[in-house]
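Figure 2 data, in text form.
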Amino acid sequence: MRDRERLAAAVKEAGAIALNFFGGPLKSWTKGEGDSPVTEADIAANDLLQQRLVAPGDGWLSEESENDPARLNARRVWVIDPIDGTRAFIAGREDWTVSAALVVDGRPVVAALFAPVTDELFLATAGGGAMRNDAPILASAGGSLDGARIAGPKRVLDWIALNGPGIVAMPRVHSLALRLARVAHSGLDAAVAGGNGHDWDLAAADLLVHEAGGMLTALDGQMLVYNRPEPVHGVLIAAGRERHAALADLVRAQTSALA
């Protein structure tokens, strides 16, 4: 409970820092070998979270920090994305979040996701349920894909909409963590991550979905393991437990057809 309270306070404080930059003049640049953007707001929020959360012996894995191999020997690891959806943040959109989780022995045990623009705070603890702004949340029930509201990469949605009659393709949610959290509170019936998601995009939302009675897995049905040497994951499915298997079958067929 102490970790949850600290985490909730920290993500709200980091979100307030990011909001101070939001919509105004902003220094940004690209990082790594790709064109992934980073801004001064990402760095300020990252520094705040590290100061507030890390205790002696804890590991740290953040999108905006240099990888520290010492995390691999730590049982407790904070997994952080100070701004998930940086492109949306830069563009002045509302669908960006602060995502943070405490991972113990490879699985998240405490999670917080804060969407500052819409003032939504998602919290979950392992075995303790999930909440959105202090109200308990549940993933949507039912096993049918007919009428199911699904968000994900356009290529995947276009294909499954053709091959899964009645599926409702929803607008993209730019923060992957928030896209998955929308499944946890039934804002979406299901969501797909198209591959190349990282621990920091996923760990907090993973716990939220499972504690809300849903499932987030790889296409083979395996739960995700965090804090590995390469913290990258393939195509993922999130949905209520009854709907998850049907959607996984459909997406598996899609990936085979497009291979």
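Caption note: The first helix runs from residue 2 to 21.
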